[in-house]
Fold this sequence. Notes:
This protein is of the alpha/beta class. Helix content is 50%, strand content 16%. It has 18 helices and 15 strands. It has helices spanning 5-9, 61-73, 92-101, 114-148, 153-164, 186-190, 193-200, 250-289, 293-303, 325-344, 371-380, 399-416, 423-427, 437-457, 462-471, 476-483, 487-501, 508-522, and strands at 17-20, 31-34, 48-52, 78-82, 105-108, 167-172, 177-181, 207-210, 224-230, 238-244, 312-319, 350-356, 359-367, 386-390, 420-422. Helix 2 (61-73) links the parallel strand 3 and strand 4. Helix 15 packs across helix 17 (487-501). The longest helix is centred in the middle third of the chain and has 40 residues, at 250-289. 36% of the residues are buried. This is PucR family transcriptional regulator. Residues 462-520 form the PucR C-terminal helix-turn-helix domain. Residues 8-125 form the Purine catabolism PurC-like domain.
Amino acid sequence: MPPTLASVVRNTSLHLTVLAGADHLERQVRWVHTSELDDPTPFLEGGELLLTTGIKLGKAAAQLQAYVHRLADAGVVGLGLGVGLSHTEVPQALVDAAAQRGLPLLRVPEATPFIAISKTVSAALAAEQYEAVTTSFEAQEELTRAALGKDGATAVVRRLAARLGGWAALYDGSGALSAVAPDWAARRAGRLAAEVDRLRRRPAPSSAALQGRAPGIDTADEDYVVVQSLGADRRPRGFLAVGTEDRITPTERYVLNAAVALLTLTLERSRELRQAEERMGAALLGMVLAGEVDTARQVATGLFGGLPEGTVRVLVAGASTGAAPEAAEALGELGERAEQAGGRVGERLLVSRENGAHGPRLTVLALDNGAAHRACLGAVEEHDGLALGVSAPSGLEEAGTAFAQAERALAVALRGGRRSVDHEEVGAGSLLPLLGEQAVTAFAEGLLRPLREHDRTARGDLVASLRAWLSRHGQWDAAAADLGVHRHTLRYRMRRVEELLGRSLDDTDVRMELWLALRAGEE
Length: 523
């Protein structure tokens, strides 16, 4: 702690006498400044013990009162008047003014040089800085040993709480509490969920200081709280919160920064291990989807802890075309959220990330309605541009079929501007109700516009001819009979449709899209 006026006064070698403001001697002295100006405040920063012989102060009570007011307003913590030069004793008007403003006033005897007071304060400040550096190094060594131990991040949290004389909490990348010390602080740490969630949406590293109080904590347990995100590549990998009875000191700030650095390194090291596990998990998922379940189970039992057993679902997430880069990046976060949720309850899952012809994709095989399944559904709602397709419940042996179901559901979600679509919805009836009305209208109008424009200005009803041909599954005679035209006429019209659309009607996907557009126009 910096020296206080009380510690300066207690130094018997200085022979200082307190004439006013004795109730405020616990004020910290940041520096000693000597000035004979009647207004030295432009040269002050606050926190100074000001020394003067009062050469220019005058003797009028109004002048002395104005002088004291200026010093008090500037944040001066104390005034020392040297007697024996311009003043044989401290003027009573100065004593009264200092008492009125609560400004400690010290009588400095002629035998005490100002430099002696300056040296006393400088020595105390130097001692404080040395103690801060020593304490910081000791704390760094202690925290480093904790980080390298078997408990890792949890041990760092415990040591940090003890060093700060308060409590500390560590959260994972999803904002879930993963470690807290002491144990009684779990309730307080749990009430910071909203603040952690705000930091989770900002690039790391970032921090928030809750000036004065932790939200939601009873008045008797008020804390000063600092929350810091942890991460080295702008994506938060975790969060650290500390609570103390008083605002943290500069020395405690050094200790906190050391803990943040160590926890960040620990999380990044863990991330490298997770990346290796992800590559293994992706390989296992590929084997399961290819039907090689027995082989995947044998490999996973020895190296991966086993496969998800029981009823599972396949979830496929993707970013819509033209989505912001942040949306594609959010797929990685979605996968992490699923893994963290499953890890907290010991739930096994398989995750794979890849960039395909349709952009980045995330595939998750998880227990039906398990923690990872629910985490994916929740996470996709938080990011614009992301969509999720969910398969029907199945066993591992049918995972390949479930994957195809999830992909189809994802396609419906992306086209309809929906956040998630379940396979049961796709198979329950018409596809059109699953698609947003605006999306359907825009899709149909854009695709069929060349045909409608042709029908307005030229002979031949191409839209009606296309509808009849598609409804008869490409059977020329049946479609021509429905239209009341010769099949050669219908063939000519279909060639004209292909020319105007620039697409081949031999393509099954093209036929599906045209039928969807025609049906949308009927709704």
